Amino acid sequence: MTEELDPFRIAQEQLDAAAEIMHLDKQAHAILREPKQTVIVNIPVRMGDGNTKVFNGFRVLYNNARGPGKGGIRFHPKESISTVKALSAWMTWKCSLANIPFGGAKGGVICDPKSMTDAELESLSRGYMRAIGRFVGSRIDVPAPDVYTTPQIMAWMMDEYDKMTGHDEPGMITGKPVEIGGSAGRYDSTALGGMYVLRETAKRRKMNLKKAKVAIQGFGNAGKFAFEIADKLLGAKVVAVSDSAGGVYSESGLDFAKLSKAKEEMGSVKNFEGGKQISNDKLLELDVDVLIPAALENQITKSNADRIKADVVLELANGPVTPEADAILLERDVLDMPDFLVNSGGVIVSYFEWAQDMAGYFWTEEDVYKKLDKIVTTSFNDMMATQKKYSEAKKRISPRTAAYIIAVERVATAMKLRGWY
Ligand code: NAD
Predict the structure, then answer these.
(1) CA 224 to ligand 1 center in whole angstroms
(2) Is residue 249 domain-resident?
(3) Per residue in 361-377, pLDDT tens?
(4) 0.90 exceeded by the pTM?
C-alpha cells in the first residue's frame, strides 16, 4: 500500500483539514488523531483438514466519549490494522454526525471467507469473540457486520459471548437475525439511508431522479439494495453494476431481478446477458448522473478523479474517495456526498436494534424506516447548512469537511465535559 492510500493516514488528514478550519483545540485534536485502544489477537482455528491455522485479528476502540464503541467486523484477506483504525475513526464521526449515543470502533480478521467452509467460519467467528470478548459488551463496545460478515456470523459471536459471560446479552452485537434480537429493517438499512441522502441531494441539485442514470460499484449488502431501492423507490435507472470479478453495463438500464438471479447462479454479475461487460475502472468513469461506490476504499484517487463524469458521487462504501481526489472533485463541482453520512443508515438501525434489545421491546419495519429517514435527513440538512455557513464566511469547503466539523465538535464537547482535556 502506498503512503498516499494508507487509510489511517487519510482519516487523520481529513480530521486535520476540519480541525484547521474549525480551530479545534490542540489537545482535543491530539486525542482525536489516535485510537483510544487497539487490541491485536491471534486466533487458532482447527481447519477441515485437521490442521490448525492461525488468523490475525483486530478490534479498535477509537473514541467512547459519546457512548460505547460501535462498529462492524470485517473478514477480508487484505484486512490491515491501518484499515481497521481508519474505519474506527470514521465510525466515531458517523455516530456523532447522526447524533446517536455511541463512540466509534471497528474490528477485522485477515482471512479469505470465500475459501472457508461454514464450520471453519463458525470456529473463526467464535474464536475471534473469545479473543476480544473482554473488550466488547452492550455498554462497552458493540460490534456489527461489515464486508464478508453476516447475521449468521453475528449470531455465532453473540452465542459465544453469552457462553463466556454466563448471561444473555443481545445488545452486545447488532446485525443479528430478527429471530434472536435483530431489528426489522436492518438488512437494507445502509442502502436505504443512502437513498434518502440521494433523494435530498437530488432536490438540492434540481436533478430529476426519474430521468437519472446510476452506476454502482459493488453488489453486496450495500450495493445490491442500493440498486433495488434506487430503481423501485426513487425510479432511477441503474445502467451499470460490478462486483470483485468485473461489471456489466446497459445503456437502457439493467433488470434488478434478472441480474440478482444471474449473480446467484454464476457467482458474479460480470457474465449477465442483459448487458455488456465493463471493467471496474471503466464503470467509475461512465457518463452517469450518480456514481455509487459501494465496494471498498480508495476507488477514486488523484489518478482518476479528473475522469469522473458523474454529477453526484454517493459514497456508500467507506473511504472510496481519497483526500486528493476529494479536492479535485470539489474543484470540478462534482458533488461528493461523504461516506459517513451516506452509509450511516446501517449504524443508525444498529442503534435502533441495540435500543430495542436493551428495552426488550421491538418495533415494526415502518417505525424503523420512519425514524431512519428523520435522522438521515436531519444529518443531511445539518451538513449542508454547515457547508453553506463556512463557505460563505471563508473558502469553499466540501460536504465532507462540513460533516467533519459537526461530528468533531460534538465529540470534542463530550470529551471536554468528561474532563479529558
Ligand atoms: P459485501 O461483502 O456484502 O459486498 C462487497 C461487494 O463489493 C461485493 O459485491 C464484492 O464482490 C464487491 N467488491 C469487492 N472488491 C471489489 C472491487 N475491487 N471492485 C468492485 N467490487 C468489488 O459488503 P458490504 O456490506 O456491501 O460493504 C460494502 C462497503 O459498504 C464497504 O466499504 C463497507 O464498509 C460499507 N458499509 C457497509 C455497511 C453494511 O451495513 N453492509 C454499512 C456501512 C458501510
Answers:
(1) 9
(2) yes
(3) 999 999 999 999 999 99
(4) yes
